[in-house]
Amino acid sequence: MTGRLKLLIAVIAGLATLASACGGAAKGSSSTTEAGQPAALGAATATDPNAYGRPELLAETTWLNGQLNDKSLVIVDLRKKDAYDAGHIPGAVWYDSTKLKDPDNANYVIKDTQFAPLVGDIGIDNSKTVVAYDDNAGLSSTRFWWVLWYYGDQNGKVLNGGFPKWQKENLPTSKDAPTVQKAVFKPVADANAIASMDAVKQKSAAKDPNVVILDVRTTAEYTGADVRSAKGGHVPTAINVDYQLSLAGSDIKVWKSAADLRKQFEQAGVKPGAQVITYCQSGVRAAHSFFTLMLLGYKSVSNYDGSWAEWGNNKDTPIAQ
């Protein structure tokens, strides 16, 4: 083999490797991810401003409509029971969204020993893909998703636009509750997904530029103009990005584009690579923003589940206004 031929082969091999690294699918391919996103988005990184880092976490209505007969899928309705009874996505099971906090201490997440039988009763085990939806801008569904995530199940998705979008698109509904085969869910708590009051105190006092404490309440709550605990204000060093700013639309709320979300958080000071602790009043809005950051591809996010209900009612916690 001549030196010129060897060089030509090396150049061709290098071009092939580069093409593979830059996307895989040939131009014009209609390949998609399981959540209905273009395949290229599934391979995107959190630094790509035009794509979610984890697009598989957000399920689109058109995709879900095509998966209604998938036995490996559990669709969970987090609306009020009367709304579920009046009509729901075919095959969806109902979960009481009030049972996502510890009944003995409402500041904290429901215990694993309580949560496991509840989700097992609606057919969820550790192998199932779960799609959660609601009718209140994703608050209940992201909270349910976060509790699943915290207990080790990272196969969950949230339906973009929830039931309002499903209805507006005239997709099928049913009043029939499905026959459920009970399952066994084995929770394994992920300590990285949750933050304690002591941990937040420590991070706030340290003023580490690589740590962001993210208050996702309204501006009025953040400044102390709206007081919902014994004390008003915010955790010292916390920055404020209202969870609602992650959504677009009026009657139907959907997540903003990846580019808009990434710009929003970075301009507020939530840089890629930062360790982020979210909090609100009760850990529900904080779970919503936890989900949004994970959707974008942030790697280190935790939810201060006690949130302001705990911090603002503790006489020893410092506050800023």
Structure explained in plain terms:
The chain has 321 residues and is an alpha/beta fold. The chain folds into 2 domains: 53-168, Oxidized Rhodanese, domain 1; 191-311, Oxidized Rhodanese, domain 1, CATH 3.40.250.10. The protein is 33% helix and 15% strand. It contains 12 helices and 14 strands. The chain has helices at residues 3-21, 39-42, 61-65, 81-86, 112-121, 139-150, 162-168, 197-206, 219-223, 258-268, 284-296, 307-311; strands at residues 58-59, 73-77, 93-94, 101-102, 105-109, 129-133, 156-159, 194-195, 211-215, 239-240, 247-248, 254-255, 275-279, 300-304. The strands form 4 sheets. It has a 5-stranded parallel beta sheet. A 5-stranded parallel beta sheet has the order 8-14-13-9-10. It has a two-stranded antiparallel ribbon with strand order 4-5. β11 and β12 form a beta hairpin. α6 (139-150) crosses α11. It is globular.
